[in-house]
Amino acid sequence: DPETAMRNFAVARRRGLSDHDRNWLDRMIEQSRRTRDERLFEHLPQASPPVGERKLTIGMATYDDYDGVYFSVMAIRLYHPEITDDTEILVVDNNPGGRCSKPLRSLADRVSGLRYVPVGGIHSTAVRDVVFNEASGDYVLCIDSHVMLAPGSIRRFIDFLDRHPDCEDLLQGPLLDDSTASVSTHFAPVWRAGMYGVWDRDPRGRDPEGAPFEIPMQGLGLFGCRRRAWPGFNPKFRGFGGEEGYIHEKFRRAGRKALCLPFLRWIHRFDRPEGAPYKPRWRDRYRNYMIGFEETGLDTRPIDQHFETLLGRDELESLQSAFREEKDNPFYFFDAIFCINIDHQTERWSSMQDRFRSLGIEPRVTRFSAVETPGNHHVGCALSHRFIIEQAKRLGLRNVLVFEDDAVFHRDTLALLGPAVRELAAQDWALFYLGGHKWNRDFPLCDGCSHLEAVRGVTTTHAIAYHHSIFDKLLHDVPGSLGEVEKWLEIHAGIDQYLARLECAFMARPTLATQPAIAITQDTWPKLAPTGA
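Predicted structure:
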């Protein structure tokens, strides 16, 4: 390890060095540390630093669309120079490590007020929640990464919110066609081609000087509001589609409105001669519509009727069955599920996929490429858990479940987890262990519970869920760089040892997940299936 060798050399020779030489040695050590961190995290692009407080954040989520981002960003800076000092441009990369990540990250070094934030694992148009969660501005305008706005419209958007300090409505504007002569002001609530909503025109939107007016719904190529007013997308949305109409209804059910501001005019690149970098799936779209409509209390029968007409009865029944099975599965309690796996350990990942498949959750589990630190696996373990929690916070998740790739499960996990998470939902919880090393201690059941224990001092992190209430504390306490974590471990020994000291921790009874190394100590070892479920 070059850094360790250099540090040892420094300790041995430091007293005999001049101030100039000491400074040189300190710079070399720091450079070595940076190089090591860059090499370790090269598959995990890092966010650029915050740009400071601004009045407005203009955000866009992108998936391998560098050209779209580039021209949208440059159009903002070229054609709206009057708002440069008031605005942050936030680029959310939903495919970090992809072919566009480095060019996107480098934009932050060249464009005034631009911040790059990578968010991987969960791929969805609903990652636009990150724009609101990470925004520095009190006002937020979210656009697709291939949208351009009419000159002066951004300034007027800021002025509108300045003049209406109590406005907490959803704000949108007319879409211009490529001739810039015709406008579409809203979606009519009509089903067509697998989507809810068809572009329509209200004559009140023709005059950019006209007064704002209410709309039923609209496409989400451009929308904005006060940051404090944003209600958030459902954290279980995945893939493409389902947000239009849903988010408008969510505002209305909170006592607010969806408004069209005639001056807030924009154009959108629809054609993609080279195709989209992602492939929309009917299963995702149907699922998102069902989740959104159920959340907002809308009638779901039109969804089934449309997809039956579009895809046929057999395909609809397949979509319905998949959605029912997912909802009925007790793992649906968790907003997201990750599994940590080192890249070259493909056999372990394959075995975990088999186990997840037997639990009915394989499509929901996201593989997390582990931070590999062969010299001390506790370093990589701590950093991997921290990165997942950081992503969960950015996505606005209510909770996240994390597995390590040697977890094995109780044969009756599905039957036993259901009552455990129902009891957990009634608790003020921070950590939930599906299993762990109890060190020969017994813990009492929680009051009124039959499947949930309140625990303290439990170790191992092979199957643990984190509640959003603990995210900030963990991100504050656990460092995010290699050298800092090595020092942190001198005190805490491992992330599991650190977590063992925290309060509001609970565990399922009986143990639902263990590791081969500790399985023999578990009370349910005969019922655990190391190679199957």
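Summary: The mean pLDDT is 91.
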